[in-house]
Amino acid sequence: xxFDGGNEAGYHSFRIPSIIKAKDGVLLxxxxxxxxxxxxxxxxxxxCKRSTDNGITWSSLKIVAGQNSTDTWGNPxxxxxxxxxxxxxxxxxxxxxxxxxxxxxxxxxxxARRVKITYSDDNGVTWSTPTDATETLTPTxxxxxxxxxxxxxxxxxxxxxxxVIPAKDRNIYSDDxxxxxxxxxxxxxxxxxxxxxxxxxxxxxxxARIDRPGSSLQExxxxxxxxxxxxxxxxxxxxxxxxxxxxxxGCEGSLLRYNTDSPHRTLFIGPNxxxxxxxxxxxxxxxxxxxxxxHRSLIYYNTCDYANITAGRGGYSSMAKTADYCVAxxxxxxxxxxxxxxxKSIELHKFNLPWILENNPx
Length: 362
Fold this sequence. Notes:
hydrolase, 362 residues, Sialidase_sf, four-stranded antiparallel sheet, mainly beta, Neuraminidase, five-stranded mixed sheet
């Protein structure tokens, strides 16, 4: 257990993970620290832990945003630029709203949810004072909003060095190392999403984005995919039948470009269920996320039989490739499925490519 709800730093629950590799292989793990309960509202901080040994040991918890505040700081979304300064710069985007809100319907005006940005130039030891980028990065029609959550990308091929952060209805990006940021809208909206730079540009653009299904795309209970350019047009959303997204509201999933040499592998983590947030699997794609022929359960005995189990191991996730060529993945844990006020925590998993493939030929 990396973040232990109810037993750590006075937080009732931890949710919405993000993990990234910074300079010298340092791993930074972020999540929301929810002070008084498991819900999405109220006093919520963004917290962080560091590892300098590829995830074997971790620092104590540090509050990155929200200290001395009762407002809601959340949806941590990170990207690392190794060329900025001596140690590189870790960018952290967040969504913010007043802690007095108790329901999404109360955020019924532009600016109720705001885009906040902070950064670290010393591998996550210290952080800048968060700045507000709502005026330039939130469309004027937007009421409820979110960035990520999870991770963004730094491009290698299209405008090398471009920083990209997925957000609701749009992709936020910078071509000047974060000095300025702008965005491109998606064609048919979007939800919580994740993005990669594609290896096959013949299929409609440089980028592929995978989202949980929004309100108009929930009937198939699968994740959805769009491809396009920045700036530029994006394709209509297409259902990914091999990637379930449970329930009527779906669930966030995490996407990672594992390698750019052949075969080009992309990884995805999410629940392998159309009903519940359970049975977390990792999938492998060799065509930028169009199809997913290989998958494996992350957790043995990861049952979805809620009637006969207490803890539910599944939900939001994030992953990073470590310096020792493994994958470090964070997934959510609901400690008691039968109590609505149960503590929620974040688990850490670490595995390598042969473990994922499990003798499947490539």
